[in-house]
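Protocol step 4 of 6: structure prediction from sequence.
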Amino acid sequence: MTVDIKRAQDVYKDAGESVIFATLMLKHDDHTATKDAIAEFADMSNSIINSMRVRAPEAQAHIAWGFGSDAWDYLFPAAPKPKQLTPFKEIKGPKYTAVSTPGDIFIHVRASKMAVCYELMDQFMGILRPVTTVEDETHGFRYFEGRAIIGFIDGTENPAGIESMDYTLIDDDEDPEFVNGSYAFAQKYTHNMEAWDSLKTEDQEKSIGRHKFNDRELADDEKLKNAHNVASKDEAGGVEHKIVRMNVPYSEPAKDIKGTYFIGYSKDFSITNRMLTNMFTKSDRLLDFSTPITGNLFFIPSKDTLEMIAEGEY
């Protein structure tokens, strides 16, 4: 089977104006009922999405959802398993740790209108709510000029458009059973914005490795050795490897909670994992102001795999 973006879920760069991330846990109290509900969701989710795109075409709704390793083992114990789908192992650096947290089902909804995100999630959960509990639900938003909540433009180095499928969609060489699937790594951060905002702009720029206003990259000798765009690179084998990443701002302003929800899609999770390892072992300067509170790896099935799940073939 050849890679075909039409057979894949929405795992390309499109952060959306409004975003909902949901991480769910399976209840494990009735295996048959749970598997039936997941099969129904695999069958109905695409119809729900298509209906919403007819109802609100201007909203540009994009959705991806998938399974954690433990959920796959519970639901499909006799079926093939994506080669790199394992529980995420925490990464301990000298100062900070990339934590590993639970997650069975992951849903990523984005659109230009929160009403569309709400309607999609409400219909999805009408199917999933009886067999799941909510581990985390985060509502994100597009900040001014597409900036992260720390004030810098996000995603400048991302693969764009159709090019992104070269980095996100599994092909025959990676895993022939799961062509057009993708791996999603989700990580939620809180920020100490008071400490970050107390830095001079020049010091923030040295920490990120880019100019804040115009987004141009700093010269290497102007950056800190552990600047974010240095520490987060994967250059294994002397080649820079890429994924499709989105840093989505979220906040509860009255509670003074401000953070970033990171989602990284890739066809090869080892690339993402090396990026994370570099960040935490090199003590990425941004981690002095950012605390990871979740960390989960999920597999995002192709539409063909979802059809097999819906038909009870898994």
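Step 5 (inspection) to follow. The chain has nine helices and eleven strands.
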